[in-house]
Amino acid sequence: MAKVTMPQLGESVAEGTIGKWLKQPGDHVDKYEPLLEVITDKVNAEVPSPFEGVLKEILAEEGATVPNNAEIAVIETADDGASNGSGPAEAKEASAPAPAPAAAAAPDDAPSAEVPGPAGSDESPNGSSAASVAAPAPTAAAPAPSAAAATASAPTATAATAAPAANGDADARMTPAVRRLLREHGLSAEQIVGTGGGGRITRDDVLAVVETIRTGGQPPAPAAAQPAATQPAPAAPPTADPAPAARPAAPTGATVTFPEGADEVLVPMTQMRKGIAAQMTRALLAPHAYVQMEVDVTRLMAVREGAKKGYQAKEGMSLSYVPFVVKAAAEALKRNPTFNAHWTDDGLLAKRRVNIGVAVAVDDGLIVPVIRDADTLSIHGLNLAITDVANRARANKLRVDDFGGGTFTVDNTGYLGTNLVMPILNVPEVGIVTMEAITKRPVVQSTPDGDVIAIRPIMNMVLGVDHRANDGAGGAALLRDIKAWLESVGPDTPIY
């Protein structure tokens, strides 16, 4: 029997939550065929099967959080079947009585983070691509209460027996914690009307229904579109300074709504925001240094504008500025190899392969999928790769190999209009560069007749440096090479 283990989805990720099994015991699975969805604090990803055979046993049910390298499934391969005389049909029959997994876990329910995306647009010089992660569908029937529910208080038991009608969306998105809360109260997604962004079910939605059932009231109607925080609380004597536990929770969308009479709301920490907070805290332990330069992108804009229409017609997608910057960074990293590296306790670990991470905004925060061997790709190849990963992020089809192994990061903050951002390193990488907004500015140019003032499109670029690995002079050399490549772009620059 071959054992399937939980993969590591990134250097800083120690565990993952089983979101949904795409195969059930008895099913045949091909090698590299998607086997399950795994949820981490940063992303949903499909995990391919490392073996071909029959899925014999599922060792970790949906919703379970499992550490890296822990065994999660057993696959009977052809060699196993030959050795014990049983074929796939017999394996399927033997596995049929296996219990079905619990309800699927879902992506985090978090405010939209105003962070850059990778894909450009025809309308603005620095485009963005915000990706939304779809949730796996839960089981049709309400799952049985867990062991925790068996020891719950009487109100919990009441909620399980007097649940409201199925007026909600069975496919509504929610966090693993919210789905677990549903199971503990014997409820299903169909019985909850989600008030989060895009109809997501939040913790407050579940608790509101439980409380309503406990007090004998009516559950929320499907038409209710306001966040739970906007629902008036039961009448109670006002207090000058309510206790923190009594403070209403903020909705998990992009806005914060204050209930009547409330001076503050608590924006809860989602799993993704907790992961981002932990990563940023680790990153700030590295001593950061910054180098900034102005890049004249007159020639770059001319090349893109000249190629944009034909490229769109031929390829069916827009030509972004991001692949040009990624290409410039990849070429510059080959001349400055100490920036294509990871910092370790033993020193600088230089990397031969140039794997550039591109920051992508998703509904719940920020992810940094990796474009591998970026130095070997053309502008078109990079544009394809960046567009592909952004589209798959929107369709919740990210793969395990989209993460981990990055050696440098490009961050497009300019689509929001920023001119000077101080980026935080994506540790253990030792360098990150930002693309700022392209703005027209007066610049002084030297001519045979003297200095003149001209209007030029200028893009600031900021390079963040791990000062343990490199100094400011090295950072200036890298950024100078990136600038030189971008300013040298011309009609002869190959797109393909």
Can you give keywords for this protein?
496 residues; alpha+beta; OB fold (Dihydrolipoamide Acetyltransferase, E2P); Dihydrolipoamide Transferase; Chloramphenicol Acetyltransferase; 3 domains; 6-stranded mixed β-sheet; 4-stranded antiparallel β-sheet; 11 helices; 19 strands; 25% helix
Please characterize this protein's 3D structure.
This protein has helices spanning 78-84, 88-95, 147-150, 154-161, 176-184, 203-214, 271-283, 298-315, 322-335, 379-394, 472-487, and strands at residues 2-5, 15-21, 28-29, 34-39, 44-48, 53-58, 65-67, 71-76, 130-131, 288-296, 341-344, 347-350, 356-358, 360-362, 365-367, 370-371, 408-412, 431-447, 450-466. A hairpin with a 2-residue loop joins strand 18 (431-447) and strand 19 (450-466). The protein has three domains: 2-95, OB fold (Dihydrolipoamide Acetyltransferase, E2P); 152-232, Dihydrolipoamide Transferase (Irregular); 274-487, 2-Layer Sandwich (Chloramphenicol Acetyltransferase). With 496 residues, it is an alpha+beta fold. The chain is built from eleven helices and 19 strands. A six-stranded mixed sheet has the order 10-19-18-17-13-16. Strands 1-8-6-3 form a four-stranded antiparallel sheet. Strands 5-4-2-7 form a four-stranded antiparallel sheet, with no helix packed on it. The model is unreliable at 86-161 and 220-253 (pLDDT under 50). The chain is globular.
